[in-house]
Amino acid sequence: MSDRPPLPRRASLEVLRAEASDELSVLIEERIRVGEDPWDFMEDLPSVDELVVLTLRAENIAADGGNRPTAARNYRVLRQISLDYPALTRAVWRLLGSEPHRTWDASVRVEAS
Fold first, then answer.
1. Which pTM does this prediction carry?
2. Its domain of life (predicted)?
3. d(CA 113, CA 92)
4. Number of other CB atoms surrounding residue 74 within 10 Å
């Protein structure tokens, strides 16, 4: 039994980064529109590469039926992402060791309160 469900081959890293950059721009704009000061939240936002890693991780979770991964499986999934996309290795290592979460997402911040 594999920890890596079959996933369709993704676009190039450049395309993934462009999509993540667009998403990050939307997150910033949404928070500014509701009156948040960028100085208060910019450090909480993921980098473009971290957002790419989290997106790839989410696709892996969805392909596995949406089952939340164990710590060991999460490590293997993130490690495999760094093997598939060596340029994302630094972002993967920044995310390893803690459960990736979405502190930049207002809906998650509300649920966590």
1. 0.74
2. Bacteria
3. 27
4. 20
